């Protein structure tokens, strides 16, 4: 299986765009979050499923490296769990 890094850019602006990310199992991935709006609770992104939490400064790209090994659906959200997204691994 190829070990090419899967890269997904996610814009954070009143939610996550896109809010569904599709990845291949067994390949490393980078989720690149860029928050473009100061409003709301979107200054943090977290995922218990994927074991990450990161602050998202305005207009700065934050890269989170993950390596999903198993197929499934993994949730991520803002710090208050109001805005949600998911990573679907096949």
What does this structure look like?
There is one protein chain. The protein is an all-beta fold. It has a single domain (6-89), classed as Cupredoxins -  blue copper proteins (Immunoglobulin-like), CATH 2.60.40.420. Helix content is 0%, strand content 52%. Strands 3-9-8-5-6 form a five-stranded mixed beta sheet, with no helix packed on it. The relative contact order is 0.29. It comes from Periweissella beninensis. Residues 3-89 form the EfeO-type cupredoxin-like domain. Pfam families: Cupredoxin_1 (PF13473). This is Cupredoxin domain-containing protein. InterPro entries: Cupredoxin, EfeO_Cupredoxin.
Strand percentage lies at over 45%
CATH superfamily: Cupredoxins -  blue copper proteins
Low-confidence stretches: none
Tally of individual helices = 0
CATH class: Mainly Beta
User: What structural class do the secondary elements suggest?
Assistant: mainly beta
* N-to-C span: 13 Å
Tell me the CATH architecture. Sandwich
Specify the helix fraction band.
under 10%
* Fold-level CATH name: Immunoglobulin-like
**H/E element sequence:** EEEEEEEEE
Using brief descriptors, characterize the structure shown.
Cupredoxin, four-stranded mixed sheet, globular, Cupredoxin domain-containing protein, Immunoglobulin-like, five-stranded mixed sheet, 0% helix, mainly beta, 90 residues, EfeO_Cupredoxin
Walk me through the topology.
Elements: E1 6-12, E2 16-17, E3 20-23, E4 29-35, E5 44-47, E6 52-55, E7 61-66, E8 72-78, E9 84-89
Parallel strand pairs: 1-4, 3-9
Antiparallel strand pairs: 1-2, 4-7, 5-6, 5-8, 8-9
């Amino acid at each position: 299986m190829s070990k090419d890094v899967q890269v997904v850019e996610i814009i954070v602006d009143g939610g996550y765009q896109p809010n569904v990310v599709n990845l291949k199992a067994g390949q490393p991935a980078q989720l690149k979050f860029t928050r473009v709006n100061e409003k709301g609770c979107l200054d943090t992104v977290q995922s218990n499923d994927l074991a990450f939490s990161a602050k998202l400064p305005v207009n700065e790209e934050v890269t989170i490296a993950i390596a999903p090994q198993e197929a499934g659906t993994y949730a991520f959200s803002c710090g208050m769990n109001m805005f949600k997204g998911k990573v679907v691994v096949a």
